[in-house]
Amino acid sequence: MHTENPLDLMPFLANLRSGLWLLGLSSWIFGILDRSFASFADGYISAIDIAQIATASFFFVSWMLLKPASAKLTSRSAE
Fold it and tell me: Of 21, 33, 37, 41, which is most buried by a Cβ count within 10 Å?
């Protein structure tokens, strides 16, 4: 009976985690830029526009702090 080594899935999960983080990063940047362009397009910035940009910026900074650590895995040699 062959049991799967948990270390075999670790590189896949690390790549998945990094990929999702990069996807979220680009999404937050797009959201902030989109909201900023929409706010400045009419030449008038309201308090709601400022609150929306500030909220998106806060979540962007929070997302930056959630960056996954690079996992350097060492597998034991087969004995």
Answer: 21
Question: CA-CA distance, 13 to 39, in Å (whole number)?
Answer: 39
Span 3-29, mean pLDDT? 85
3-state secondary structure the chain: CCCCCHHHHHHHHHHHHHHHHHHHHHHHHHHHHHHHHHHHHCCCCCHHHHHHHHHHHHHHHHHHHCCCCCCCCCCCCCC
Nearest to 25 by CA among 61, 55, 71, 70: 61
For 72, residues 6+ apart whose C-beta sits below 8 A from its C-beta are none
> Can you read off the two tokens belonging to residue 64?
């930056």
Q: What interhelical angle do 47-65 and 6-41 show, nearest 10?
A: 160
- Is the pLDDT assigned to residue 73 strictly greater than 50? yes
